[in-house]
Amino acid sequence: MKPWRISIRMVHQRVTIIGSGPAAHTAAIYLARAEVKPTLYEGMFANGIAAGGQLTTTTEIENFPGFPEGLTGSELMDRMKKQSEKFGTEVITETISKVDLSSKPFKFWTEFNEDAEPITTDAIILATGASAKRMNLPGEETYWQQGISACAVCDGAVPIFRNKPLAVIGGGDSACEEADFLTKYGSKVYMLVRKDHLRASTIMQRRAEKNQKIEILYNTVSLEAKGDGKFLNALRIKNVKTNEESDLQVNGLFYAIGHTPATQIVAGQVDLYENGYVKTVPGTSLTSVPGVFAAGDVQDSKYRQAITSAGSGCMAGLDAERYLSELE
Ligand code: FAD
Ligand code: NDP
């Protein structure tokens, strides 16, 4: 009798897209239409975010062109996924846990095959996104998206914030920009800064300081988000110089304390900026490793919008297609 033999088939892919937000699906649409048959790993709660990316964590999207009536973030992402699949993208609901970019073809493992033979690929598009840092304040879970948000541009215009006092936590450029933006909607905007100075660039500081609707509270930390069980209506704050605590009446709270790009799997293999974002050659999606492309929030610490992510996903799709045809 012959002994059992397990045959392990090495799987090889031409191009592997990691991620499932607007950048990943736009790259997939371009590559699939070019008949490259991309494989897209959409993740299984990778980085704490559902397949479909950050937009699945919000309600109405009003600034994505082509949808004048608006649509929900999940609906927009379902449509993008349908469009990638329609042209032949294979979507796999697994998280890529490890990549080896040291030789070609590249190798990678998913969380379900960490001990098995790696899958190989000629090109990778990294579109793993980023996530806004959260404070994890008591009450945050209850009022998340019911008064608390991490994106003023995305959520600032919703009716619950109109003509109401709002607060922004942070002292960087994002905090200044978001506070300034929110004055279009709120009756007043408090900036809560934990130190006695802002970190933002001079021009952004001046803009915030000059805006009559912004009040900057220095040396102020936040302790608890409070509300009526449905919507936020106050924030417990403390002055760290005097130790005095008080309730600040606000109906909106916006975190602007930075973002964390999802670059753990390529750290040490692809050049990153000090803040962890992937470095790309300006005007392209090319990273420091030929054959590895980056698109979306993972390489953009500034704009971080669905449309800019989709735009850079298109660039990555076209750059990867060109790379693959040169390989052949
Ligand atoms: P992301 O959307 O960040 O998605 C990346 C995906 O990759 C995630 O699903 C993640 O799980 C997956 N992933 C990560 N690592 C792995 C891995 N190792 N393997 C497999 N999968 C992985 N922008 C707008 O333009 N308009 C808005 O109204 C708007 N509203 C927003 C509201 C909120 C609450 C938030 C948080 C953001 C909002 N944004 C909005 C910003 C927008 O969502 C992002 O700019 C955009 O989603 C970034 O897209 P992306 O393709 O880079 O990746
Ligand atoms: P930054 O990291 O520059 O600033 C984060 C801010 O949040 C800091 O003031 C920090 O305080 C504060 N912070 C962090 N954690 C906490 C916490 N737990 N509690 C309270 N406060 C906290 O992030 P940004 O998003 O502002 O900027 C990121 C990059 O993007 C920067 O390079 C910036 O220049 C750029 N950018 C540029 C813009 C423009 O030019 N228009 C607009 C937006 C961003 P502390 O200072 O005490 O550490």
From TrEMBL:
Cofactor(s) the protein requires to work: FAD
Catalytic reaction(s) noted: [thioredoxin]-dithiol + NADP(+) = [thioredoxin]-disulfide + NADPH + H(+)
Assigned keywords, A-Z: Disulfide bond, FAD, Flavoprotein, NADP, Oxidoreductase, Redox-active center
Enzyme's top EC category: oxidoreductase
Keyword Cell wall biogenesis/degradation belongs to the record: no
Gene Ontology BP terms: removal of superoxide radicals
Quaternary state and interactors: Homodimer.
Protein name: Thioredoxin reductase
Membrane spanning stretches: none
Pfam family membership, one: Pyr_redox_2
Domain FAD/NAD(P)-binding: 14-313
Family in the record: Belongs to the class-II pyridine nucleotide-disulfide oxidoreductase family.
Entry's cofactor comment: Binds 1 FAD per subunit.
UniProt EC number: 1.8.1.9
GO MF annotations in UniProt: thioredoxin-disulfide reductase (NADPH) activity
One Gene Ontology term, aspect cellular component: cytoplasm
